[in-house]
Automatic annotation (TrEMBL):
Coiled coil: none annotated. This is Ionic transporter y4hA. It is found in: Membrane. Its main location: membrane. The chain crosses the membrane at residues 7-28, 34-54, 66-90, 102-123, 135-156, 168-186, 215-234, 254-276, 288-309, 315-337, 344-362. GO terms for molecular function: potassium:proton antiporter activity; sodium:proton antiporter activity. It comes from Amycolatopsis pithecellobii. It is a multi-pass membrane protein. One of its GO terms (cellular component) is plasma membrane. Residues 34-188, 219-360 form the Sodium/calcium exchanger membrane region domain.
Length: 363
């Protein structure tokens, strides 16, 4: 009989949200110095990781299909909070911050997470195997969501510039929610077997022991505390983030890349761990699933927030971004269709991510 799964109360995942909340009370409404800014940044990163951990504990308890929603919703709340906080503060780049963050999330997930997982998995296990049907459906959803939300605004004529008119924005937000809902239903209920890990022996379904009710309630409370702390600390840290980007000479749009890197760090680590265990399909689910959640939930939330936020909401991609997105789509299709990949595919995706980061810093 397997030993019961333990979730210790005295751990960094418990301490981080509590300490972050205390730090928020101390720094709120003030102009923190350099030391305080560094402490807030460390607390913010640790609390994001702790929030995702507690979301995973809750998800393990409630099971599917609701369990798969917990982590995505928690991460999306963090992402939207950071975006809205920085947009509300104004400044250069505020009008395009949502676009920059969401597109950075798409590039990081489809090239960074996927590329790292394929490379790590291939280096340890040789050729990596995954379900082309499930991964192809995920990729198609990502491409459709990204096209509706980020590509078309660059070509519509109802509004000047890279923005949607109000009806167009409402349609994109509604379409994003519908696609995300259908994807969740397909992945967790109707065709769940398409998204299970694949090995030479066939499909593998893993069963993990659920945490206790007490551990779940503790994680739920800590998750709420962590989300509150993240929203507040993001407000405290936002001037430092923008100042840091300006200090190194990067364009204001790079702030969105910083946000996406911070939010997607937990998924990146989880995907790499899954790849080391020869569960590449789990890694692909994390990568493409994060991209789908980032667009499918963030765009509707930002669209709603734009009602009371000042200034335009620029969503359309620029020429360089469009080329990188098109290249990512082509490469991703060639990676997914065979249902197997080597370290070469992983390296290609990582080079695409490096190109995106380099051109985001030096456009």
């Amino acid at each position: 009989m397997a030993a019961p799964v333990r979730f210790p109360l005295l751990s960094w995942t418990t301490a981080a949200p509590a300490l972050a909340l205390v730090l928020l009370v101390v720094t709120w409404g003030r102009h923190p110095g350099v030391v305080a800014v560094v402490l807030v940044a460390l607390a913010l990163a640790a609390t994001v990781l702790a929030a995702v951990h507690h979301a995973e504990v809750v998800a393990a308890r409630v099971g599917e299909p609701f369990g798969s929603l917990v982590l995505a919703v928690a991460v999306t709340v963090i992402e939207v909070a950071l975006i809205v906080t920085l947009m509300a503060s104004g400044g250069p780049g505020a009008s395009s911050l949502a676009r920059d963050t969401v597109f950075a999330a798409v590039m990081i997930t489809t090239n960074g997470i996927i590329g790292l997982a394929l490379l790590v998995g291939a280096l340890k296990h040789g050729t990596t195997l995954f379900n082309a049907e499930g991964s192809g459906a995920e990729l198609a959803t990502v491409v459709t969501l990204c096209t509706l939300s980020l590509v078309l605004p660059a070509f519509t004529t109802s509004r000047s510039g890279l923005q949607y008119s109000a009806p167009q924005l409402a349609f994109a937000a509604l379409a994003s929610l519908v696609l995300y809902g259908v994807f969740v239903f397909t992945q967790t209920i109707r065709h769940r077997d398409f998204f299970l890990p694949v090995t030479e022996e066939g499909v593998v379904e893993e069963h993990a022991e659920a945490p206790s009710g007490r551990a779940t309630m503790t994680s739920l409370v800590l998750l709420l505390i962590a989300l509150i702390a993240v929203v507040g600390l993001a407000k405290v840290e936002s001037p430092a983030i923008e100042a840091g980007v300006r200090a190194v000479g990067f364009p204001p749009s790079f702030v969105g890349v910083v946000i996406a890197l911070l939010v997607l760090l937990p998924e990146t680590l989880a995907a790499a761990r899954a790849a080391l265990r020869d569960r590449i399909q789990t890694s692909l689910n994390l990568g493409y699933g994060s991209a789908i959640a980032s667009i499918g939930l963030t765009i509707p939330a930002i669209s709603l927030a734009s009602v009371w936020l000042d200034g335009p909401l620029l969503l359309g991609l620029g020429p360089v971004q469009l080329i990188l997105f098109l290249l990512t789509v082509v490469v991703s299709m060639l990676t997914v269709i065979p249902g197997r990949a080597t370290r070469l595919q992983g390296a290609v995706h990582l080079v695409l991510l490096a190109a995106f980061l380099f051109l985001a810093a030096i456009p």
